[in-house]
Amino acid sequence: MKGNVYHSSTQSGLKVIKPHISTHKKKWVYATKDKVTSAIFLSGYGGDYVCGTGVVNDKPYICERFNGAFDLRYKDKSGTIYELPGTNFIPKRTSWSAEVVSDKEEKPIREIDVKDAKRYLLGLVEKGELTIYYYPNRPKGIIPDDDSDLVAKVFNWYRGGDIEALNSLEKFHPNLVPSVKKKLDLE
Prior knowledge:
Elements: E1 4-9, E2 20-21, E3 27-32, H1 35-39, H2 47-50, E4 51-56, E5 59-64, H3 69-74, E6 79-85, E7 90-91, E8 99-102, E9 110-114, H4 117-126, E10 131-133, H5 149-159, H6 164-172, H7 177-184
Parallel strand pairs: 5-10
Antiparallel strand pairs: 1-6, 2-3, 3-8, 4-5, 6-9, 7-8
Helix pairs in contact: 5-6, 5-7
């Protein structure tokens, strides 16, 4: 891929970013094509269970799945955005077009320390570079009001070997657990 890419982490000072296995069951370094989209991942606390994330009309967004979710995920959290050479990164290996991956260890070109993820993200909103949907608002046609998209995600993650997915769903959305269990034939 031409140009640089961005990788966010809760760890600062990394000299090398190593591939790791994530939900795709591949050993990859994950990155995004732009810094703003990467900033969404300054904190991964609760992941999709807490805040849905994505890009609508070329603009990244964060969507609270319940009242206070944005603060839960980002308040008092710090992290680092690493700028990496895009040379080894390949697009279209995941279902998200904003994401690129590399199967090689990557050396950062630059490091942007973020002391307060919430404040940093709110600054991006002020600049018009990021949208935050505060509960109960949602991006239309993307994240359903009843969070039923999580049922399909947890079903796929669980079937793919992530047995903790059901426990995470129980922690944040216990009302959805029966639907997943039924789909998995666990009841």
